[in-house]
Each structure stands twice: as C-alpha cells, then as structure tokens.
C-alpha cells in the first residue's frame, strides 16, 4: 500500500496545478493518471483571457479568473525554475476584433459590461488595430485591446509540471487509473487503482475532467460533467511571414468565435469549435469553418502550413462554472472548468490547498459548490459514509 498526504486524481493542467501548489505547501502529493496531459490540456491553446474570455452571465468566474491572471507569472517562474523547462508564457496582449457590423455591435455590448465590472479594455479604431497587426483584414469593423490577457503553452506547461513533480522528493506521478474511493468510516482515506493497489491518503482531490466518476461517491451526489468537444488547429508560419502576429487575436465572424494564438517559434494555434455531438474525432466541418473564419480576419492564414488537427473534450457543467470545493471529509472537487481550465487552474489550486490546510470556504466561491446540482435529499458531506464494493467484499 502506497502512502501520501494527498492524492490528486487527474493529471491534466488542473490536477497538476493543484499538485504543484500542494507540494509547495509542504504536502506529500501523488498524481494518478494513466496518460497525464493527454486530455483537454493536449488541445488547449493556452489563452489567459480573464478579460477577453468573459461572457454574459459568467460574472461568478471573475472570482477565480482575475486572481489567476495575476498569479500566473509567478507560478510559471517557479515551475520553470524547478523543472528547467520553459512554459511558453508570454505577455502578449489580446486584440479582440469584429468582422462585421453585427459582430461589432455584439462586441460593444460585451465591452460595456466588462467596463461596468471594472475590467480593463481599450477601444481601438479598425485602423489602429491594423497598425498593431498589419495582416488584419482591411474589412474589420471594430476592435478593442485587453492588455492584461496573456498566454502560455499548455503542452510545455504540462511537461514542466510533470518534470517538477517527478523530480521532487515529496511528490510522485502514478500512471494508473483510479477506479474507486476508499472510505474509512465517514471520511475518504484514499483511492483504489485498477490493479487493486491502494493509495492511502488524508485527502483526495478529484480533478478528473470528463473521465468517468470513481465508485464510492457520496449517495445522492450529482456531478453533471458533460463533454464539450473542441476542434483545434495548429499551423506554422513561413519565415517570410514571421512574426505572423504579435498579439493573440480573438474575433467574431457572423456571431462565431475564433481565435489565433501565436507562439514564439512560428506556430499559430487556431480554435476552437464547441460540439456536444459525442464524436471524439476531428470534425472536417469544424476545421473548414475555423479556417474560413480565421482567414476572414487574417487572409494570410491561407499561406500557413497546416501541421495538426486535434479534438478533445472539455468538462462542462450546466452553468459553465467549475465544481470546486469540499464534497466530504477527505474529498475535494476540482473539475468542470470547461473552456477556462488553463487559466483557472492556478487559482483553483489555491482554493484546494487552502481547504486542505484548514481554511474556511470563501463566500465568493459559493457559486462553485460541488453539491449545487444534487437533490435536496442527498446525503450531506458531513454525514456521507459509503464504502467501495471491494471493501464490502473484504
């Protein structure tokens, strides 16, 4: 039987961020995932868009997204120092552009709401936007600048987290599948792996994304995670077009959202569709639409080399807010981050670490309560007492 202070189930960027924060707090941490970083994190573009990704009726997310944006630079500096791996963190601002008049009107309505909430956005004339990015189409109808919205490369970030954790004395990465919670009386005391191995822990963090729930969750608890598939493209700019972009570009084209994220090595990430059709493969229609919309904003996209298409499922909830908080003694949820996982991960990690260290839940995080979708008759966390089939049989 293995021993750990905390087991984090899920090795995507959300789970790895939680593990890293807990390690920094002095906890012994074990991450359990058969293929760390191969889920939504593999496809993610890495926009840190607390401002530009804000949407109507998602005000509650600001309690996580704004502090996360401020925290990111220090987190990546610490992880890079520990791992020796550069994460692709760049302070490139985000340029938000509208392809047509209707897109401009929608964008202006959103910008007014952003300003009401105190978010920093600066309107730009189309001509000024084109001076900043000379490959922008001369037909764009409007633009604004989100200077505090930056980016990171999630694939590099995952590699850095894994290297830092695997190189630490008090951390481990277990490439296996957790199948069940192990209960000790009314508290969770670890997890059971698919090979029947038991990892004993004082706390278990569920950062499982869209993967199946473990056996042994409290009776009546409902964690309604749905897979929202996103198709993402990776292209490469030829030397004569470098630098292709100096900002992250987010746009609206006939009401559809599209973004282009430039990497320092010439890679351009274009995304992303949102599909709930259950199809795990890349959608040809989505690829076609993304390329058309990106080229509507930046015609030179047609000159890029298409090097990868990928689709992954992001963990969505009915209200598009995370499931973040204590489920039961010894059990914490850290999932359901939908399209915001890379950004929210570093602040969600602080919430998890604070709970494990005994801090009370904060009022501004009540909207993320993992029990909010459960029936009124559900067994409350403080009295939950369930046992896995393996325990009962033994």
Question: Can you tell me about this structure?
Answer:
The chain is an alpha/beta fold. It has two domains: 2-43 and 155-223 and 318-393, FAD/NAD(P)-binding domain; 94-147 and 227-315, D-Amino Acid Oxidase, subunit A, domain 2 (D-Amino Acid Oxidase, Chain A, domain 2), CATH 3.30.9. The chain contains nine helices and 18 strands. The strands form three sheets. Strands 1, 2, 8, 9, 10, 11, 17 and 18 form an eight-stranded mixed sheet that branches. Strand 9 and strand 10 (187-193) form a beta hairpin. Helix 1 (13-24) runs parallel beside helix 8 (341-356), helix 3 crosses helix 6 (154-166) and helix 3 (62-83) crosses helix 8 (341-356). It is globular.
